[in-house]
Automatic annotation (TrEMBL), chains A, B:
Gene that this sequence comes from: truA
The enzyme's E.C. designation: 5.4.99.12
Function: Formation of pseudouridine at positions 38, 39 and 40 in the anticodon stem and loop of transfer RNAs.
List of catalytic residues: 53
Nuclease found in the keyword field: no
Residue positions binding substrate: 111
Family: Belongs to the tRNA pseudouridine synthase TruA family.
Name of the protein in question: tRNA pseudouridine synthase A
Taxonomic lineage of the native organism: Bacteria, Bacillati, Bacillota, Bacilli, Lactobacillales
UniProt GO molecular function: RNA binding; tRNA pseudouridine(38-40) synthase activity
Lineage top rank: taxon: Bacteria
Record-linked InterPro entries: PsdUridine_synth_cat_dom_sf, PsdUridine_synth_TruA, PsdUridine_synth_TruA_a/b_dom, PsdUridine_synth_TruA_C, TruA/RsuA/RluB/E/F_N
Domain Pseudouridine synthase I TruA alpha/beta: 6-105, 144-248
Length: 249, 249
């Protein structure tokens, strides 16, 4: 038995998410179908580091899977890359110890969120950025986003009823920049882990702050009260990108 | 009768091109269907400045059309923008004299061509850039592209059998840059007009020069011999963007 770690990218537009679901097109299933073929008809389970939602994209999703015997790495990557649908690409494959687990090994994830603030929206970005055509004061967003840095209980930024008990996470990078030519706001967040819909709820809150509908201190308020109803709406999935995952040694 | 000029953008992926064709989904037809509704069931013909091919995108296509009576401009823009499919957007609408013709009034067009040189390809760009995974020497392309500047007979860069008699055109800007983060080559061409598939043939030739398969002087050779067979292959439409059209007063 040999364990492989692969870095993959995918366009989330035509998937119902990463995780396998009955009767839905998912990234996990498409890769498992290909591995089944490459593994002489024996099924292979794919484990993903992050379970991206429907419409959410990835540049650096990490998966692991086991094969009965060792394979030449580039051949395996090439076979996986060319035989999966063209909205999935396999960037690299490496052998790892059987102790490596894509999801449970300690790691940092970096997410990006793209907001199209152009008027009217850019049709070429409709699946790749969330359109936000309302007035925004960039400096308010720049100020509020700093409150996300550090170790906090992010209960107020996740969906209620989550089965996760410990909602404390650390955000080590929280940044926003404005790309003028494409009229894009680009949010970047890096942290030890993100709760379900956390990034999208943080972005939704920051946009409402930028729009003046929530006070600039609202991030702090949501963190201390842990009250989901005080946060902004959940931003759509089409603007969200899982950019990179880095594992601690 | 009032003539309107509109600037539109569209994602070319799901269209068979700009120009109306029977039994094909086209930009012209989608806009005409919307104008028919906005014009109380009376048909309206849309004239486009450039006839983009299947898969080709536009950020600044210009159209003109006539309506029996004057309309409030933003209402007309909004109606057109929201009632056309979401892969078309109407950026602006203005009244023009009845002498204005989107196609025949003298103008400059700017095209961009995006090449994804990443390995493996970026699945999120598969409809928006042409993938070129072969080795490229950027300096060869930078050198060769200068030969396109100026007034030339571009017969060697257009499809044979074209009905156009005069194939002399002027290119006033021809540029290439490398966007490292996205692994994109971005070509920009600006000129008095471009022949059928001219930009795609020029890009195909430049890529072959960059790849070392054609000598760096090949652009000059194709221009002087007017021989299509000496040029490179026609690059795919998905990387081509009609960026902007500027009319001379």
């Amino acid at each position: 038995m040999v364990r492989y770690k692969a870095i993959i990218s995918y366009d989330g537009t035509d998937f119902s998410g990463f995780q396998r679901q009955p009767r839905q097109r998912t990234v996990q299933e498409e890769i498992e179908k290909t591995l089944l073929r490459l593994n002489s008809g024996q099924s292979v389970t794919v484990h993903g580091a992050g379970r991206t939602d429907a419409g959410v994209h990835a540049y650096g999703q990490v998966i692991h899977f086991d094969l009965p015997q060792a394979r030449e790495l580039e051949k395996l990557r090439f076979g996986l890359d060319t035989q999966t649908p063209d909205d999935i690409d396999v960037i690299s494959v490496q052998e790892v110890s059987e102790n490596f687990h894509a999801r449970y090994n300690k790691h940092y994830k970096t997410y990006e969120f793209l907001v199209d603030i152009g008027r009217p929206k850019n049709p070429l970005l409709r699946h790749y950025a969330t359109h936000y055509p309302y007035p925004l004061t960039f400096s308010l967003i720049e100020e509020a986003i700093k409150d996300l840095l550090g170790t906090h209980d992010f209960t107020g930024f996740t969906a209620s009823g989550s089965s996760v008990v410990n909602k404390v996470r650390t955000i080590k990078m929280a940044d926003v920049r404005f790309e003028k030519e494409k009229q894009l706001l680009v949010f970047t967040f890096s942290g030890t882990g993100f709760l379900y819909k956390q990034v999208r709820n943080m972005v939704g809150t920051l946009l409402k702050i930028g729009n003046g509908k929530l006070p600039v201190g609202q991030i702090r308020t949501v963190l201390t009260t842990k009250d989901r109803t005080l946060a902004g709406p959940t931003a759509a999935g089409n603007g969200l990108y899982l950019k990179e995952i880095i594992y601690e040694e």
